[in-house]
Amino acid sequence: MTKIHISKGNIAQIFGDAFVEILCENHDEKDCEVGRAKLVIEPDAFKKHLIKTIVPKWHGGNHNEIEMLARSQIACLDKAAEAGVSRIVFSAKSNNYDDYPYSEAAYITMSATALWIDHFGPTTSVKDVYFICDDETMRKNLEDAFDDTGLST
Questions:
Q1: What is this structure's pTM?
Q2: Full strand arrangement of the beta sheet holding 3-8
Q3: Percent of the chain, pLDDT > 70?
């Protein structure tokens, strides 16, 4: 079964098979659009796979940004599973979520992850999902959102 891990620290401290680069909507990334993910094979030993996704800019929650952020999260998990990775690491930096309230970003991200695990957890190659936070507020919001999902660690 897939497990979720949340911690504050440096993403370099976690060894994973896939790392997610979260880009803001105004970022010019070829072949990647909001709500989708792109898999990039990395030649170095630290990152075996890099998954890029673009999250929409926050406009108060009334412009499909909740759905699109959830789609981005699920698309990253799908790409990791397609690549056969066992550990995926999300850098949950506060500046990744382009004006999202921390609590909203955490709840949307964790809810989408929980739905994906409920559906694919028993059969997927992805066994560990890490969220590495750059500040205590984001870590606390992710932990609160995780508690609301009813999943166990």
A1: 0.81
A2: 3-8, 128-133, 87-92, 18-24, 49-55, 37-41
A3: 69
Query: What's the Cα-to-Cα distance from 153 to each of 4, 5, 34, rounded to whole Å?
Result: 6, 7, 30
Residue 65's CB is within 10 A of a number of other CB atoms, namely 24
Residues forming beta bridges with residue 120, ordered by sequence position: none
Distances (CA, A) of 33 to 23, 24, 55, 68: 10, 10, 9, 10
Q: How far apart are the first and last CA of the chain?
A: 10
Q: Each residue of 107-128: pLDDT tens digit?
A: 999 999 999 999 998 889 999 8
Q: What tokens were used for 69?
A: 């952020």
Helix (H, G, I), strand (E, B) or coil at 45: coil
Angstrom CA distances, 78 to 13, 109, 119, stand at 24, 14, 11
